[in-house]
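Handoff note, outgoing to incoming analyst
You'll be picking up this chain. Sequence as last confirmed:
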Amino acid sequence: MTSTAPARRNFLRSPWVVPIAVTSAVAVSLLSQPLFASGDSNDLPDVTADQLVTQVLDAKPQAMSGTVVHTARLGLPDMLFTEATGADPISLLGGSSTMRVWTDGVDRSRVALLGTMSEYSVVNDGPEAWTYSSSNDEAVHYSFSDADLARLKTMGEQARVEATKKQAELPTPQEAATEALARVGEFSTVRVDSQSTVAGREVYQLIVTPTTDKTLVKRIVLSIDGETKIPLRVQTWSTQDDTAPAVEVSFTDVTFGMPSESVFGFTAPAGVTEREVVVPLPQNDGAVKGSGSAHEMPVVTGTGWGTVVEFKDLDVAALLAKDPSAMTGSGERIIGSEEAQKMLEEFVPEHSDGSGMDMGVLYDQLTTKVPEGRLLSTTLLSILVTNDGRVLVGAVPAETLRAMA
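Most recent structure output, in case you need it:
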């Protein structure tokens, strides 16, 4: 029977999911130091930090499956999670969540976020993706138009990979680590610590430490499988708490080998609500364009761990009420095509998520009123919504954003 309950918004597109993304997104740049693994715990060959970083970046993608536990200690109110029942990406913002993952190592994957009696699944198959929530009996199919599919065929391999990334992805150790290691530069030091064991596998431990005190990130510890060089655990520590990681994504069991073909297929269960969403393929300049005006790119200030991203002309109150025109000060569409406009609405929150959580009330409870606007502070990320319609985001202390306002 098709559910008549209000469609719950995809919380992976919520501004509240940003603290999770900081696990990978703020891990910019590494400066390798020639320190060796001690080899005390395992029998893995000694390796320098520079060699290990190179090996991880050059590692061949692996077909694999396993169980991942995601734990967040971001300092957010407990009420945020006690009101969220069942398997829902919002649960990734606090406490521990369990996911099952499968990948063919190329372009097909499945991730299932497990609740006590529910499941939220994401299935990726090349240029297509599906999400399914058993809590509200809804399945969403994301695809490209025929014209954009033709464009994809003319792109280089890396461009295709970037273009087909889905916003519905759930975090895994590989995703959290790859972004960190992909940006080698001058903003961090990295060393190899004592070898250890994760999910029954011998691992190297790579410790990334920012060279600045202008960030909330104290260090990131990556546990790298000694054989495949695949990251099996990523721990992000905050400067505000050295007793436990602020965010940890870790395999508890893992099997390297091709999963069953059946896990990559998706068929919506009988009776669920099904929606089709055509994803607009970004133009070369990164803006999504149509017959209307292009979306203004955010302003980036600072470098490395102290980077702050500023979005302009956002009416947060209207966004919480699901008004797409709030994305611009003029009230006009920022995306011209009908398909793109539908996609935009996917990124805009419902007034309620279907379980009685009023997003406006939630916003008021999570943020604190300051002279500059409203402030959300977590152990890894600060977000300031200014009175003049700007949003500043960074893995920096709240005072940094307030000074910029």
